[in-house]
Amino acid sequence: MKIVTAVAPVNIAVIKYWGKRDETLILPINDSISATLSLEHMCAKTSIVCSPDLTETKFWLNGELQPTDSKRFQNCLREIKKLVNPNLEYLSWNLSICSENNFPTAAGLASSAAGYACLVYALAKIYEINGNISSIARMGSGSACRSIFGGWVRWQMGNTTDGSDSLAVQIAPETHWPEMRVLVLVVNDKTKTYSSTSGMKTSVETSTLLKHRAANIVPQRTKEMITAIKNKDYKTFAKLTMQDSNQFHAVCLDTYPPCFYLNDTSRAIIELIHFYNQNKGETKVAYTFDAGPNACLYLLEKDVAEVIAMINYVFPPTSLKSDYFKGDTVPSKKLDEVSLK
Ligand SMILES: Nc1ncnc2c1ncn2[C@@H]1O[C@H](COP(=O)(O)OP(=O)(O)OP(=O)(O)O)[C@@H](O)[C@H]1O
Ligand SMILES: C[C@@](O)(CCOP(=O)(O)OP(=O)(O)O)CC(=O)O
């Protein structure tokens, strides 16, 4: 019997991935950029048992049995197994996989990114594979390819049909911008109505704004974002981050039928942050929202205490779940192996 437990971090995009050019291989229509958060507060944790006594492969997520015949799960398992020494005695043994997220799942806080990065990493450990597993994680969930690396990561969309050039690469390591912090404001921890997968599929089919974004906006914005990150230019970084989040949600509205991910509290957070920055006379804090109402704020360490105080003052305790309202850190540690027997 073999047992592995691994933990993997979430990543929060500052240039959003939204739209696929290949649904099976999970190839995107534009580049994206994210920071991988530290494992301290938010992570997926996955344990895998591999044993000759197991009669079938099973997968539990947050205590609930999941189907193992999904294309994504099977693709990850198949691609990992392709890299395994065919003589490995336990290659044919079944697996018992158990994963848990210590933060809301499918609520727009990148659970699929941490979850599939963790699954693929744990599988690689079980089968003793070394090498870059980011492209395999991508086949589980696109954004997962970025969670394999720490620090600032770019997922290059690539152009080939086989996806060989659609790769995540590190722009800057976790040590690059040590003052950077992320605050996660949980507005609603419920599972969202439209998954990212189905939302972006409808956007690709119906949104003309998404076509314009992918062709004419993201290429230039990606270059500017990389320069801002490399130069630690917070003002430019913050503006690009907020503009990209807003454009992504504009695409969601331009989708037919529209996907509403933001709610009134999300919009109040956006207004508050612009008001606060304006009153301070400089950009102190930037928001970004994934496919959900929950805000991620990027800000510098020196401003964390005041921004937390301001948010606590404006929002009554019931409107934000203070359990999750905490500072996470970028720089991050990478994936971690908890134990290996
Ligand atoms: N720990 C995990 N292990 C494996 N799969 C997971 C795990 N956590 C989440 N997932 C998968 O990811 C799905 C949620 O993905 P989805 O992209 O809709 O939400 P999200 O990643 O939380 O939000 P967003 O993509 O907007 O940041 C879950 O329904 C489940 O299939
Ligand atoms: C809004 C996003 O978080 C979308 C993430 O989409 P997913 O990676 O969850 O989608 P699939 O590839 O279909 O699994 C933006 C981002 O993380 O870049």
From TrEMBL:
Pfam families: MDD_C, MVD-like_N. The keyword Zinc-finger does not apply. GO terms for molecular function: ATP binding; diphosphomevalonate decarboxylase activity. Keywords: ATP-binding, Lipid biosynthesis, Lipid metabolism, Lyase, Nucleotide-binding, Steroid biosynthesis, Steroid metabolism, Sterol biosynthesis, Sterol metabolism. It catalyses: (R)-5-diphosphomevalonate + ATP = isopentenyl diphosphate + ADP + phosphate + CO2. Residues 182-333 form the Mvd1 C-terminal domain. GO terms for biological process: isopentenyl diphosphate biosynthetic process, mevalonate pathway; sterol biosynthetic process. GO terms for cellular component: cytosol. Its EC number is 4.1.1.33. The keyword Lyase applies. Catalyzes the ATP dependent decarboxylation of (R)-5-diphosphomevalonate to form isopentenyl diphosphate (IPP). Functions in the mevalonate (MVA) pathway leading to isopentenyl diphosphate (IPP), a key precursor for the biosynthesis of isoprenoids and sterol synthesis. Belongs to the diphosphomevalonate decarboxylase family. This is Diphosphomevalonate decarboxylase.
